[in-house]
């Protein structure tokens, strides 16, 4: 509602400028606040008082002019001038009630749809022959929610899993895969990728013949040798098969067809280097090919040199990201590209994109956005590690989440079957872990705390899941089907009105996630909505004697709208709702 009034006032200022009432160069920062007392209205603004002085007008007269130039809106029942020049708005509760009714019948709860775009979302991006570790969860879940939010709003989303599937380490990995196959022909599965990588490295460091073979395989792989290519593919497939288990478990919407690893851009790289040279952007420097960028300074204050090809002919991570941005615009037809990558790669991306723009590969009208995030920390404020200081495997974290969720549910008595219980445990565990990450402003580091996330109280997934389940049980008790409710919404109680006002802000919350790539905006919204619902449910009985039928229907409709928004909202977050728990 605040947003609605805000928007109306911005239009009004524009109207007043074109009507000559306000000077056109006047900066107007519109602020809307909730009224302390209901009798004074719902929302108020001090806009007239703020603009009076710079506009050389009397505040109350300016307030009258603002009201006169407000665009027509059925949302406002009444506007009043108060005190020295405040403007108070009274909402039309019929309008609000009508909005809630419309939400119940609309498949997307009446969310405002923007003009559809093609958006590439780059996320997850683990490395081949390495097992996914806890830190991968951030990019994986944040990016996934952005992708889901965009899709929900009708955009065409291209998920790009930019896996690390190229580099000189592949010679060593192929040589080791071959050794394994020779030694135990049947046991080709890389069950333990971490061990695989370490052992390959050990062979490489300790066995000269092995190292020689490995170096030879790098050259052959780059030359497109069929045997090396097949072995390489095997490594990629085996890794991604294992990663897929994590994706499925976390309900992350990535599949095999979203894999667009670094290797995809190999063929473009020589051409790009040649083109950057031809455009005078890249120069030879000490045998390497370098782009000097004035935008970045080295420690001596000189233009920073970014290497795009090494003296041995090898290309770099930056070269790949230049090609990658070009490909996403030219070939995939992106209108916008969102990258969910940890904040330590910010400079890398800025350099790659500065070169991309200078070369004219992607026009300025197509945003390349870095949605950076901080680290996941333990309770001690240090990077989240195992007790012995090792990297925590993602699979171990997910297993622990399920164990802890099972223990949490053990304490609640329920009449669920074993199968239903297992399903509830899974939904709660995965929801809790994802939500812990999603609900924090991604730009900062965050502390991973089991007790906080696996709780039915506070801003957690179990709390939201529980709110949803509770509404379902209200429907069961009332013996009604939420889909077939009839009747009208009337907003008599304050708790009803507050809930209705929150409900209609769902659209802003989802749009916020898509625009800013910030899932926590939706989390905060759903948490506040659940709080408003709980207050409503305590203040406004439904299945009690003495509640007349029209009121009961109206309240059930409010329940239905809340359940719908919770289900859709949690759906955008990739978190399951439960009918019972
Ligand atoms: N594989 C990289 C890493 O683990 C992340 C890749 C992110 N995407 C990109 N286009 N650079 O650090």
TrEMBL record:
> Among the entry's GO cellular component annotations, what is one?
cytoplasm
- EC number of the protein: 6.1.1.19
Q: Name one GO molecular function term.
A: ATP binding
Q: What class of enzyme is it?
A: ligase
Write down the Pfam families for this protein, in alphabetical order.
Answer: Arg_tRNA_synt_N, DALR_1, tRNA-synt_1d
- Database matches in SUPFAM superfamilies: Anticodon-binding domain of a subclass of class I aminoacyl-tRNA synthetases (SSF47323), Arginyl-tRNA synthetase (ArgRS), N-terminal 'additional' domain (SSF55190), Nucleotidylyl transferase (SSF52374)
BP-aspect Gene Ontology terms: arginyl-tRNA aminoacylation
- Give the keywords, sorted: Aminoacyl-tRNA synthetase, ATP-binding, Cytoplasm, Ligase, Nucleotide-binding, Protein biosynthesis
Taxonomically, the superkingdom here is Bacteria
Q: Which InterPro entries does the UniProt entry name for this protein? A: Arg-tRNA-ligase, Arg-tRNA-synth_N, Arg-tRNA-synth_N_sf, ArgRS_core, DALR_anticod-bd, Rossmann-like_a/b/a_fold, tRNAsynth_Ia_anticodon-bd
Spell out the reaction equation it catalyses: tRNA(Arg) + L-arginine + ATP = L-arginyl-tRNA(Arg) + AMP + diphosphate
**Location of the protein in the cell:** Cytoplasm
Where do the Arginyl tRNA synthetase N-terminal domain residues begin and end? 3-91
Record has Cytoplasm as a keyword? yes
Instruction: Indicate the segments forming the DALR anticodon binding domain, all copies.
Output: 464-581
The UniProt similarity line reads: Belongs to the class-I aminoacyl-tRNA synthetase family.
Task: Give the matching PANTHER family.
Answer: ARGININE--TRNA LIGASE, CYTOPLASMIC (PTHR11956:SF5), ARGINYL-TRNA SYNTHETASE (PTHR11956)
Q: Share what the entry says about its subunit structure, partners included.
A: Monomer.
**NCBIfam families named among the record's database cross-references:** argS
Its protein name is Arginine--tRNA ligase
Lineage from the top down? Answer: Bacteria, Pseudomonadati, Pseudomonadota, Gammaproteobacteria, Aeromonadales
Gene for this protein?
A: argS
């Amino acid at each position: 509602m605040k947003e609605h009034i805000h928007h109306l006032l911005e239009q009004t200022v524009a109207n007043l400028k074109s009507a000559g009432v306000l000077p056109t160069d006047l900066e107007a920062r519109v602020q809307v606040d909730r009224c302390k007392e209901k009798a004074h209205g719902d929302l108020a603004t001090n806009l007239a008082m703020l603009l009076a002085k710079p506009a050389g007008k009397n505040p109350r007269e300016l307030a009258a002019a603002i009201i006169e130039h407000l665009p027509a809106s059925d949302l406002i029942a009444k506007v009043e001038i108060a005190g020295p020049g405040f403007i108070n708005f009274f909402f039309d509760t019929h309008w609000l009630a009508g909005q809630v009714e419309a939400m119940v019948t609309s498949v997307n709860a009446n969310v405002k749809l923007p003009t559809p775009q093609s958006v590439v979302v780059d996320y997850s991006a683990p490395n081949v022959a390495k097992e996914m570790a806890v830190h991968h969860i951030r990019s994986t879940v944040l990016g996934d929610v952005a992708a889901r939010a965009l899709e929900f709003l009708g955009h065409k989303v291209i998920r790009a899993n930019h896996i690390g599937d190229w580099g000189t380490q592949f010679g060593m990995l192929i040589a080791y895969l071959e050794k394994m196959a020779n030694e135990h022909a049947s046991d080709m599965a890389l069950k333990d990728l971490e061990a695989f990588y370490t052992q390959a490295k050990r062979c490489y460091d300790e066995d000269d013949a092995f190292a020689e073979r490995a170096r030879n395989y790098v050259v052959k792989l780059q030359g497109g040798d069929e045997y090396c290519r097949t072995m390489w593919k095997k490594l990629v497939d085996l890794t991604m098969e294992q990663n897929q288990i994590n994706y499925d478990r976390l309900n992350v919407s990535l599949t095999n067809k979203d894999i667009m690893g670094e290797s995809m851009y190999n063929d473009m790289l020589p051409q790009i280097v040649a083109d950057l040279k031809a455009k005078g952007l890249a120069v030879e420097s000490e045998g390497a090919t370098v782009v000097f960028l004035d935008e970045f300074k080295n420690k001596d204050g000189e233009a920073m040199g970014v290497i795009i090809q090494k003296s041995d002919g090898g290309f770099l991570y930056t070269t790949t990201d230049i090609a990658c941005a070009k490909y996403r615009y030219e070939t995939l037809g992106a209108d916008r590209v969102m990258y969910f990558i940890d904040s330590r790669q910010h400079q890398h991306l800025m350099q790659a994109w500065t070169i991309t723009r200078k070369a004219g590969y992607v026009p300025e009208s197509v945003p390349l956005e870095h949605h950076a995030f901080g680290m996941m920390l333990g309770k001690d404020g240090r990077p989240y590690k195992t007790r012995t200081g090792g990297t925590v495997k993602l699979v171990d974290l997910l297993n622990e989440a399920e164990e802890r969720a099972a223990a949490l549910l053990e304490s609640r008595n329920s009449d669920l079957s074993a199968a239903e219980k297992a399903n509830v445990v899974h939904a709660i565990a995965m929801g809790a872990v994802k939500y812990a990450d999603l609900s924090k402003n991604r730009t900062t580091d965050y502390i991973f705390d089991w007790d906080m996330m696996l709780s039915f109280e506070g801003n957690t997934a179990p709390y939201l899941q529980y709110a949803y389940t509770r509404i379902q049980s209200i429907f069961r008790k009332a013996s009604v089907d939420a889909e077939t409710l009839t009747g009208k919404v009337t907003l008599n109680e304050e708790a009803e009105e507050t809930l209705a006002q929150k409900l209609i802000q769902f659209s802003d919350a989802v749009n916020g996630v898509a625009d800013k790539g910030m899932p926590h905006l939706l989390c905060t919204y759903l948490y506040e909505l659940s709080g408003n619902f709980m207050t409503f449910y305590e203040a406004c009985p439904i299945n009690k004697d003495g509640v007349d039928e029209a009121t009961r229907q109206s309240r059930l409709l409010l329940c239905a709208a809340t359940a719908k928004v919770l289900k859709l909202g949690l759906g955008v977050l990739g978190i399951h709702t439960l009918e019972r728990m």
